[in-house]
Amino acid sequence: MLKDRIEAGKLLSEKLKKYQNSNTIVLAVPRGGVPVGYVIAKSLHLPLDIVLSKKIGHPSNTEFAIGAISSDSMILDEHPNVSKKYIDHEIIRLRKLMTEKYQHYMGNRKPLDVKEKNIILVDDGIATGNTLLASISMLRKKNPAKIIVATPVIPYDKVPVFKKNADEFIYLIASKYFRSVGGFYEEFNQVEDAEVIHLLSLPIDTD
Fold first, then answer.
1. Checking CA distances to 95, which of 56, 66, 88, 164 falls within 20 to 30 Å?
2. Which element (helix H / strand E) includes 12?
């Protein structure tokens, strides 16, 4: 069990020590990944930014993901009964939402350039992993030096997926009895937008 996201960030920082003061950017997944990513960025003196991706829900059950999308890439499962028109509409709708969300969290700041840099991609836990995989495929197109995925909690059977898709995969707990990410934290409060905006506005010493 982890106490909270702060402890998770500290424990992951220990495993990521070799990236301290290096050519590396921490990219956190809002909202829950931001407190974890902030602790890592602060501990290792690295710049912090966010990465956004969204699941594409099935038209008859939006909770059921048929794919995932980021600002410039997409992963889609085969669903012959889902129309191209529906998918095209969702892509436009979700990309507009993501643009608005980025501005909401980051103001007028431009996303950090990740070309030829190491990226530490952080979330507070992985369940299905679909949206994080979409983020990895989007980031690959931007030619980073290396993608390191760091997460406190993951289902045991998802570990090989991330070992294959990331250049390095760092985790604290891989459970065969996985019900939910929150089940591995003593405190797992909802992270509000205000907290995300506050953490992203704090200065981080990157020298």
1. 164
2. helix 5-15
Cα distances from 56 to residues 29, 77, 92, in angstroms, run: 17, 10, 11
Which H or E run contains 44?
Answer: helix 33-44
What are the C-alpha distances in Å from 100 to residues 11, 94, 179, 189?
Answer: 32, 10, 32, 24
Instruction: Write the pLDDT tens digit of every residue in 43-69.
Output: 999 999 999 988 898 999 888 888 888
CA distances from 71 to 83, 89, 126 (A): 21, 14, 20
Task: Take residue 164 and report the two structure tokens written for it.
Answer: 């294959």
Quote the pTM value: 0.90
Residues of the chain with pLDDT under 70: none
